[in-house]
Amino acid sequence: MSLSLKEKQKQLYQTVLARLQDRTQHQIAEAEVRVLVGDELKKQNWLLPENERTYLVNLVTFSITGLGPLEFYLRDSNVSEIMVNAPDQIFIEKAGKIEKAQESFNDDEQVIQVINRIVGQIGRRIDESQPLVDGRLPDGSRINAIIPPLALNGPTLTIRKFPEKAFTINDMLDFGTLNPEMAEFIDKSVKQKKNILISGGTGTGKTSTLNALASCIPKNERIITIEDAAEIRIDHPHLITLETRKANIEGSGEIDMRTLVKNALRMRPDRIVVGEIRGGEAIDMLQAMNTGHQGSLTTLHANAPFEALMRLETMVLMGGLDLPLSAIKPQIIQAIDLVIQQERLSTGERKVTDISEVIKSPGQKEYELKKCF
Predict the structure, then answer these.
(1) Which of 75, 195, 201, 294 is most buried, judged by most C-beta within 10 A?
(2) What is the pTM of this model?
(3) Number of Cβ atoms within 10 Å of the Cβ of 364
């Protein structure tokens, strides 16, 4: 009885791995593995079409030196996100649309093996005592892994790929995210040092838009970016990138977003760019905007411009300063100049659906927005 492609792959994998058993992962080069897989294929004398032969060489090589079937999608520039729900349920995002991938893992054990390989690269560990890891790969891609007992259906992995190049306003025009009038308005607003809040739901492209806006900042200005996991990519000669740090196994050593925002103010920034406001750092960001640090940029999760300002209120309250709303609202009104709303349509396209100006007038105590686009 002839072997299936998966059975051939498993046999090749075990044979080649046996030949490398005295070597550590770091001592095994991809080129060498490709040669060994090719040798084993010749020995087996299987009658295979060229495309199947190439596929087997790639898959076995990736399983030994990389992230197994995920390598096909990590190396595909059109794939922006990879989601592993189960060994036979890998989903990818391509051109804004989520689709089920053709590749799959053999079992939960192989998924765990790949997760361990990933977390090992970033100096972390994952096990029953620490079943959740959030981090960044060496190429900048953001990863989240969660395993039982927290993940009831088995090990789960999400990889958001880091963009290969800095995203610009021209890219937004090419993708149809905004129109030329919007692009010109945003470019001028950034150069005029308007404080801009980018609002939208998960996966709407807020970070890409933040990158595009930051690309409009003049080259002679000093930019400091602050993120939980570095995703902002800006082609700029005067750029400082800061990233939060999780607590270690003993529960110490954490550096949070608030600490980095406060520290950034001592670094003589012309612009502060915060990847995403999620909590108490909102009050520090607002105070920075209101004390001479114009032209700051940030994002948050909200479904409408007015809702974005309301969420900002909630996050300020999370800062623990016990401020009344009557004191918070005027700060937000004075700090935020523009709110850019972004959405992902059912077609997968990401669109800027609203650009609103925050009206400022003497004694203004309630939010008033003027729609620009």
Answers:
(1) 195
(2) 0.80
(3) 14
